[in-house]
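Before the break, one more example. Copy the sequence into your notebook; we will annotate it together after we see the structure.
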Amino acid sequence: MAMGVMPGLKVIMIQRFPSYVFKVGETQFAIDKEMAEGIYVRLER
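Here is what the structure looks like once it is written out:
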């Protein structure tokens, strides 16, 4: 939540190499592998 990523928001993976880039709303975030490994996402259908 520190980056404004709140439960229930749609997260889109844009890129995985050389860094992880994902989009939430109109904002894109780039993070390293170590931080990405600590993120868990639950898929809703």
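The chain has a mean pLDDT of 87. The first helix runs from residue 33 to 36. Try to locate both features in your own notes.
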